Sequence to fold (296 residues):
Amino acid sequence: MKLTLGPILFYWARQQIMDFYADMSEQPLDVIYLGETVCSKRRALSLDDWIGLARDVREASGAEVVLSGLALIEAASELSSLRRLCDNGEIKVEANDMAAVHYLSRKGVEFVGGPSLNVYNAFALEELTRNGLTRWVPPVECSADLLAALMQQAQQNQLELPEIEVFAWGHLPLAYSARCFTARAENLPKDDCGFICQNYPEGVPLTSQEAQPVFTLNGIQTMSATPANLLAEYPRMQRMGIDALRLSPRARDMAQVVQMFDTVRQGAQPPLALDGCNGYWHGQAGMLRVEEVGLC
Fold:
């Protein structure tokens, strides 16, 4: 299976982004995604900067590079920026909103379908494939059984499937909102937030009244409290025919995460249980680590 590095979901400073991708260019990654998917106010890099960085990363790593678009379009200016992204003419685009699918399919160019597209069956997926989709990242709440059923549905109906890339490690992006939760937590208006997200390079942890981790707040994005970790599921995903595993960037120890997955990919025995949540993969509540409660 391919190892891919998803786009950075948090708001990092320009130099931190540059240093991160210089490090990741030395890792055994097959696909590297770049770009802003969460908030259009995060402008540490412009579109031209992202394209230039994509060229540098491609040359340094030899990996395929993809530019990711916003998952929630709220203004005409964001739609205009998305159109410019889709018109870049050089780097493949990950569509995280149906507006991007519309632009890219009309241009007749191939694209990746991101996890925020609501696609759950083989017929919908085949429609997108006929319009240029070459790789699909299922929504993070999809279970192994749902994916297996989708693949069987495609086989029974002789439908063409794209590559399937599973979100295998990192804080799960669960929902998007017009409200900025990070600004609200700091008692700031969204339109004058002072880019407060930069103070939280791995998001804001949110706990219950019982002090249990529940979510991670990341601007307008709500994420899982702990990173998902599907490394123990590697053999099953391999048997299913999953094509790629997505690792979502974090500010610390990302190289170790890549190496951990690559070691198993090279033939090492995967661990039986790991830190992190994996409930969704087993059809349970996403926040669970199902080994702890005897569900698998």
Observations:
- The longest strand covers residues 163-170.
- Residues 164 and 242 are 6 Å apart (CA to CA).
